[in-house]
Amino acid sequence: MTQKLGLLVYWLFIITQGFSQSKDELNQHSDSLYRQLQQIKDHEEKAHALFDLSFFWSDYDTTKAFSFIRDAETVLGQTGNSIYYRGVKSFYRAAVYFEADPDKAKQNYMEAENFLKNVNAEKRTEASRYRARLWGSYGALLQREGKAYEYVEILIEKVIPLAKDIGDSSLMGNNFQNVAMNLMNLGDYEKADEYYEKALQLLKGKKEALEVRFTLFINVARNALLYKNYHKSGDFLDSAAVLAVQIPRSAYIPIYHSVSGSHWAAIKNYEKAHAHFESGLSAAKMQNNDDLVATLLFDQFAAYQANNQYAPAKKKLLEVLPYVRQKSSLRNKQMVYYNLATTATELRQYQEAVKWYEAYKNVSDTLFSDKSQEQIHELEKKYQTAEKEKAFLQIKTENQKQQLSLQNTRMLAGALLLTSIILGVVSYIWYNALKNKKKLAAQKELLLQEELKNHRQQEKLNLYHAMLQGQERERSRIARDLHDGLGGMLASVKLKLSAVATNVDKQEINKESNMELYTIINQLDHSVNELRRVARNMMPESLLYMGLEAALQDLCNAMSNAELKVDFQSSNLNDNYPQPFQIAVYRIVQELLTNAVKHSGASQVWVQCSQDGGKFFISVEDNGRGFDVKNDLFEKEGIGISNIRNRVEILNGQLEIDAAAGRGASFHIQLDIYG
């Protein structure tokens, strides 16, 4: 599952030093910085310190952030009206709007760019540093909108050249890492590795950049893990572990444990994997970072699932669920619901699986609908813009010649027509896509229902198979008891009566009584023979001691009589079939022959058995009165077809019946010898 390794949330781009601090700690830190800047005498240096304090508070309290910008403006006085400081103020205002109003943030970043790109040589280096920062932030906003390629393009074409111009290797290294992280999230791991190598070369040995190097080692390890280079991921995680000891309060500590846990899970060392996940959870909870808590819980689920431990895997998913539900991200909910459905299916909790699948389907439909609404909204904005341009052109052309007015009107009409066509095409595409999406969801639901049906059918077959095995064991026991117990007793009684008859003959006593005695002995002989016949039918000795072919031949001979001839033919049969298989085949043939004797009125029955590879074939035909296969009544009248069908299904076989009233019946069966 490609979603398992960190795609639950985009925390790679939003980690800051501040979120691990409590509100009291933030105030203490801010007060400390404020006291320090009060000691600064230089106005411009003091203003920059106030700007930095505004930047610090922009993530937590926008009111405070704006107040520090106003303080900086007051300190600068008339100097603040220069092109350079107007650009700087726009940059810091954009930083305050970054989370609250992204569109306004982008507008302020572009204002800052327009000012800073025109500063004089004296402030060129500082301006370039701000321009690199603003383009990086602007690209990050695009990345949040799903425009990851545009972000990479800005980093490569804007930010890195600016950093190179001012000779800032740390800034270049950071942004090479940003490029690599975006390429990694886009799935281009090989290209990402190239930019990670550039970042490593630039930041190599920079002791003042411990946090940046720690982050870089972890991200290189993550990228290696994604393209399954476990040796490389292990080496960089070892390097990160050394730095983790030096910066134990780093905001990246939970991420280090997350990547380490995923690494150990990938190489099947689940004990170390879960140890890292637990350490990461503790760190994330100390930092009050719910996104990282959810990510680490999801990584634990992935490790349990990879180890086929579905019960603890499901438990971790249920722990993730509250974090996902309190967020607005539909994709996260969609992924968690889907994994809950599949995990419940693995645990055979089919009712619960259907519930989670329904939730997954609902979120998927909403997600698709929202995306389509965004596309339509964007087209509507373009349409409204076109309308505004149209109004502007109409006012402008009032004082122009009639010919120019007509030409402009035609151009606007064409633009309006084109926009309408685009709207129509997009609406049609959206409608078809939504229709296909719903159709696909319905098919998935049908597949899930079919799977549940197959599971129930398999459980039914397993139950019937167990019942048949129990019946065969009980038949064997009863046959053994009849043959060895009651049969022996009847034989003993016969022998004693025979001895009495012999003594009577010798003494020549009452010949009439003597004849009655011999009649009783003959009846006893018939009873013993009948008893042995019943015992043989329940568990034939020939099947136990002579094999399947001999037992079937013996069965056919026993079923033959003056009115019915049973002909048995065999081809390529073995002597070493599994005993359950032999018993099943014998019972099927026995049932078919019994049906022929009782119901067909036939004078001739042909039985053929053969083997070809792993398949066993049975054919039983008669020349009797036949029956109507399409009429279900024959099963209810004792012919026993359902019993034969069940035995055939247990052996993964196929039954074909060719019969019609007045022209006999044929039963053709194919069985899988090895199940």
Automatic annotation (TrEMBL):
Recorded catalytic activity of this chain's protein: ATP + protein L-histidine = ADP + protein N-phospho-L-histidine
One of the record's GO molecular function terms: kinase activity
Domain Histidine kinase: 477-675
E.C. number: 2.7.13.3
UniProt keyword Transferase, yes or no: yes
Keywords: ATP-binding, Coiled coil, Kinase, Membrane, Nucleotide-binding, Phosphoprotein, Repeat, TPR repeat, Transferase, Transmembrane, Transmembrane helix, Two-component regulatory system
Name of this protein: histidine kinase
Species of origin: Sphingobacterium chuzhouense
Coiled-coil spans in chain: 369-403
Pfam families reported for this sequence: HATPase_c (PF02518), HisKA_3 (PF07730), TPR_2 (PF07719), TPR_8 (PF13181)
Domain of life according to the entry: Bacteria
Transmembrane segments: 411-431
TPR repeats mapped onto the chain: 173-206
InterPro entries xrefs: HATPase_C_sf, HATPase_dom, His_kinase_dom, Sensor_HK_TwoCompSys, Sig_transdc_His_kin_sub3_dim/P, TPR-like_helical_dom_sf, TPR_2, TPR_rpt
Enzyme class: transferase
Gene3D superfamilies in the record: 1.20.5.1930, Histidine kinase-like ATPase, C-terminal domain, Tetratricopeptide repeat domain
